[in-house]
Amino acid sequence: MRWLMVGFLLVSAGAMAQGPVYFWAEIVPPEGSVAALPERAQTLSIPLAHWVEGTLGFQGVANEEELLLSGLFLVWDPPYFLLGLRDGAWTTILRGTPEVAELVVFGAGELADLSGPRILEALGLIAEATAVELQIKEVPLKLPAPPQGVKLDPILWALVNHPDWFGFARDYGLERVGLRVRVVAELSAPLGEAFEGYIRSSTDTLAELLIPIPMLPELGRAPEVKMVRPPYRPEPLGG
Distance between CA 21 and CA 139 in Å, rounded? Predict the structure, then answer.
């Protein structure tokens, strides 16, 4: 399998950009490959975090801290998944749904021969002998405004598009559990059925949700939503 890249060194690509850069590609997983992921991960002894009846459980590790310290891990939250692989200073992420996924590669230094293609092929997520063209993308230095009609706080919009969901959520103090993030939706009417399973508490005008990160734009476009933001955190009073 070959990786076709626009550029060879992340350092040289970064020198031409205003902010940090990463490599990105969109792929279509082979039919049935995502549904088979948990079983294949277990066969290959890949640590797994998965949602079962509203709770994040683990296989191969005790908790999420151990999971993220693994060199290779899977987070399974159907229909969403995230496969993470660390090669030295580089991280390869494949995240998405059975229909479409994005491949993200980020790190520092020279882009060496990564093991990502071999792992993805072993898991059946990329067909044998497939060439993937990786584009260079830039992480904005300032939080970008969401597009018109997507009523998300800029922090949440930046999270959706960031190459490293876990690192971004940590740096911005967002509460994340697996692929889900805790948010508050300000409402003009009750939320639609599509979001009911993610609501943790609600009133006539507010709903607190623990919702998959990929669903944030859909929540922000809902007609009954006025704004989606992180929960307010009380600040201690000065002495």
Answer: 6
